[in-house]
Prior knowledge:
The complex is a heterodimer. By secondary structure, chain A is of the alpha/beta class. Chain A is 30% helix and 22% strand. Chain A has helices spanning 59-67, 108-119, 126-139, 155-167, 185-200, 235-242, 247-262; strands at 19-30, 33-44, 48-52, 73-79, 82-83, 93-96, 173-177, 204-209, 220-225, 228-233. Chain A is globular and about 65 Å long. Chain B is mainly α. In chain B, 79% of the residues lie in helices and 0% in strands. In chain B, helix 6 (125-147) runs antiparallel to helix 10 (192-205). The model of chain B has no long low-confidence stretch (mean pLDDT 90). Chain A binds chain B through residues 1, 30-31, 67-72, 85, 87, 90-91, 93, 95, 97, 99-106, 110, 114-115, 117-119, 121, 149, 165, and chain B through 3-4, 6-7, 10-11, 14-15, 74-76, 78-85, 236-240.
Amino acid sequence: MMNYEPGAPDTPPPPPPTSAIAARGLTVVRGTRTVLRALDFTVPSGSITGLLGPSGCGKTTLMRAVVGTQAKVTGVLDVLGHPAGDPALRPRIGYVTQAPSVYTDLTVRQNLDYFAAVLHPGRAHRAARREAVARAIDDVDLTTRADALAGALSGGQRSRVSLAVALLGTPDLLVLDEPTVGLDPVLRRDLWNLFHRLADRGTALLVSSHVMDEAERCHRLLLMRDGRILAEDTPDALRHRTGTATVEEAFLHLVDADRADADRTGDHATDEHPADETAAPLTTEEAPR
Amino acid sequence: MTATAGRVLRQLTHDPRTIALLVIVPVLLITLLRYVFDGAPGTFDATGASLLGIFPLITMFLVTSIATLRERTTGTLERLLSLPLGKGGLIGGYALAFGAVAVVQSALATAVSVWLLGLDVVGSPWLLLLVALLDALLGTALGLFVSAFAASEFQAVQFMPAVIFPQLLLCGLFTPREAMHPVLEAISNVLPMSYAVDGMNQVLQHPDITGDFVRDIAVVAGSALLVLCLGAITLRRRTP
């Protein structure tokens, strides 16, 4: 990790303490490919920040950089007041990967018991651990399946086990990579309600999705494309700024404007966006807020 | 460390077939061997004792390499390394859990060999068990280490012939190491399995603990520890 000291002469002053994540010039190289190109963004505490963009645009890499599992990260990336990957952050961040990372040959409760023991080892914390496990199982609505093998659960249930593991330590920052893929509308709504409750408690959430309708449920959005951030704003402001009705249309608008910028080799692309009619929302679900 | 060991054992309890294979197969093979050498009990003594040391090494190598490979591919390893868990704790937990399995496995195989099959051991059967346990730890260590270089279960299984078979051929099981080509004998001198087998034979032939026996178990334990440390290096918190 190449985090420069915030006091260095040519870096801007450190971000206000309310931001859970602050990135300046965040760049990640994987192999020979530059996956993230000099990103600047912040993620505030106590709110949900949606990370949106097409698959392959670098969302997961960005999240791995924040969590501290990504190699070859350069630039400044401060997480909860520490450089990303600092050992002090490990108990304070909950990370849910896209593929559920739980042991399929253990029951839901055994999975949580183990990860709870890793977080708070020792006999002294036994009662607290049991309580945390029960609460996490309840939070993701799996109480009735608590003693089923994780491998016997459906895909959506298994990803909720993975989410429950991340909730165990009541983390200050939750990084969730596509947490609602494969879930039915009712469950999706319930989970988003849970995310909002967590944010109200002061947790910062960074939630990625490639389903644009989920954007409406976020407080703030980071729109990504090709390893760059196209926009960073509230959903309302984005729609307002682009004069569109949905975040999806706003995204398409921004992509077109960006393309026009890129191949401004004399020919001026029009500012209106041709995708208007095809920009029907992928799903038409009501936001729960 | 105990949390990880408990978790690994709990995973095994959900997989009774694996437990049965781990515990019963060595017993069956050693019984088979006894009747293969039906007319030559002396050969059974030498080979059987060696095999009691080799079984735990091979099975723990296989089980550990697959188990850790699964941790890597399912993302649980990445999750664990993003939690406040030391690498030593994780590796120690695996060593502890599979060490415990090896104790059960070896105890059963040794008991059957000595009491039912008439394996003639001059020394204490407890020492046989000690060597078997150290062999199991060496197998666990090797399995953990090579799993870092395997991208799939197919590759992991192929590491068995690559890592274990040469040691098996050179360890003195088939022919005394002194009778091999000098180059091979020199190579066998630096392979840990040679010492595992020699340790078993020391117990087989001597009523007391010999200097060679102490050297043998020191080499096996030292190699296990060294490879475990190498295994720890292969666990990276940051991956590309």
